[in-house]
TrEMBL record:
InterPro entries: GH28_Enzymes, Glyco_hydro_28, Pectin_lyas_fold, Pectin_lyase_fold/virulence. GO terms for biological process: carbohydrate metabolic process. Belongs to the glycosyl hydrolase 28 family. One of its GO terms (molecular function) is polygalacturonase activity. Pfam families: Glyco_hydro_28 (PF00295). It comes from the Eukaryota. Residues 1-25 form the signal peptide. The keyword Hydrolase applies. This is Pectate lyase superfamily protein domain-containing protein. Keywords: Glycosidase, Hydrolase, Signal. It comes from Asparagus officinalis. Gene3D superfamilies: Single-stranded right-handed beta-helix, Pectin lyase-like. The keyword Flavoprotein does not apply.
Length: 273
């Protein structure tokens, strides 16, 4: 557990310096934006995130022995800092993972729970999941646990994800679960069309979701509206509702552009347009 949490801290550092290299994908995305510019669709009243500000609590690496001289290794300081945060109790397990593994799941790259006013945005920088090694091991049946996602937010309200590129996720890309007032806007998602289970955006038992102006190439469903999985979904019993999807460009030759009902253990989705 300690090593996995340290890995997450290091990955966060890598994410902050990632940039998008101009490519045919960005040019295609630009054509998509021009084609749909100015068109309006149905509106959905959402309570959007407020302006981001500093939180009252601040963590300083120097408190744990960190030295910013460009030469000293701060591995131990990072590890101690991450370990100083309390652990979140794990979700109940029912003995197996989505990848038909024995149980459990590898860590997501970015994850949050019980949050309010979440803003994850950028200037079209890239979050790269380095998915190929995961896809290869999955196909070779060499994984002990289910693959993690690039971004998963649970039990949160007023979530904005915008102007970012998500590339080569090990599995699903964006997975809000049990969330309210979620906007995903201006997002590009890229994965080879033969990559396994690289869903684009999967709102799961969420209420008040708007997905717009997104460009998605994936090896699975571009968007899949879900409402809980297996016994855990039955126990919670929370369907997705009040979802608007508009101005979407999708390339997924073998899967759905928009899938409704791939997992509905918590009830059928309501009011989707």
């Amino acid at each position: 557990m300690e090593s996995s949490r340290f890995t997450i801290a290091c990955l966060w550092a890598l994410v902050t310096i990632a940039v998008l290299v101009p490519s045919e994908c960005t040019r295609t995305r630009a054509r998509h934006d021009r084609r749909w510019g100015g068109e309006r669709g149905p509106e959905l009243e959402l309570d959007l995130p407020r302006e981001a500000g500093c939180r009252a609590h601040v963590k300083n690496l120097t408190e744990f022995g960190g030295v910013g001289d460009g030469a000293t290794s701060n591995t131990k300081a990072f590890n101690d800092d991450v370990n100083d945060w309390p652990l979140i109790d794990p979700l109940p397990s029912y003995g197996r993972g989505r990848d038909s593994a024995a149980g459990g799941r590898y860590s997501n790259l970015i994850m949050g729970s019980n949050l309010t006013d979440v803003i994850i945005t950028g200037n079209n920088g890239t979050i790269n999941g380095q998915g190929k090694i995961w896809w290869d091991k999955y196909k070779q049946k060499k994984l002990d646990y289910t693959r993690g996602y690039l971004l998963e937010i649970l039990y949160s309200d007023r979530v904005l994800i915008s102007n970012l590129t998500f590339k080569d996720s090990p599995s699903w890309n964006i997975h809000p679960v049990y969330c309210t007032n979620v906007v995903v806007s201006g997002v590009t998602i890229l994965a080879p069309v033969q990559s396994p289970n690289t869903d684009g955006i999967d709102p799961d038992s969420c209420s008040g979701v708007r997905i717009e102006d997104c460009f998605i190439i994936s090896g699975d469903d571009c968007i899949a509206i879900k409402s809980g999985w297996d016994e855990y979904g039955i126990k919670v019993g929370l369907p997705s509702e009040h979802i608007i999807i508009r101005r979407l460009t999708c390339i997924s030759p073998t899967s759905a552009v928009i899938a409704i009902g791939s997992e509905m253990y918590g009830g059928r989705p309501r009011r989707t347009s």
